[in-house]
Amino acid sequence: MFLGNAVDHDQQLDERPDWQKKLLQRHHLDTPYPASAQYWFDPLAGTLFLHQKGANRPVLIALNGSQGSGKSMLCAYLDMAIAARHQLYILHETRRIRGSQRREELAA
């Protein structure tokens, strides 16, 4: 999504739900991020919610992927989106196997 100027950017940011504003600020994301995330992640959020509701118990979901692939971002989005819409909360933990300096070296 292209934003023509700063006025459009500010107006679009003001129209977002509070949880999306917090997500953008907390993770230093570009304004177009939620539109893309909604397209890809909202169907998953809905499926997870319905599955958990039907299971009537906690559901464990494991994510695997390489460093920088977006696992933590996906969890943050799902956590905020599901909590805002359904008052259901996600507990997620990111295990740090390597030190931050080594992770930065690997990411370069």
Rg, alpha carbons: 16 Å
What is the overall pLDDT average?
77
The number of domains:
1
Query: What is the β-strand count?
Result: 0
What structural category do the secondary elements indicate?
mainly alpha
Q: Order of helices and strands, N to C?
A: HHHHH
Q: What is the number of helical segments per DSSP (H or I, 4+ residues)?
A: 5
Beta fraction of the residues? under 5%
The description of the largest β-sheet is: none
Can you tell me the residue ranges where pLDDT is under 50 for at least 5 consecutive residues? 1-9
CA-CA gap between termini: 28 Å
Helix percent reads 55-70%
What general form does the structure show?
A: globular
Care to describe what's here?
With 108 residues, the chain is mainly α. The protein has one domain. Helix content is 60%, strand content 0%. Helix 3 packs across helix 4. The longest helix is centred in the middle third of the chain and has 23 residues. It is globular, with a radius of gyration of 16 Å.
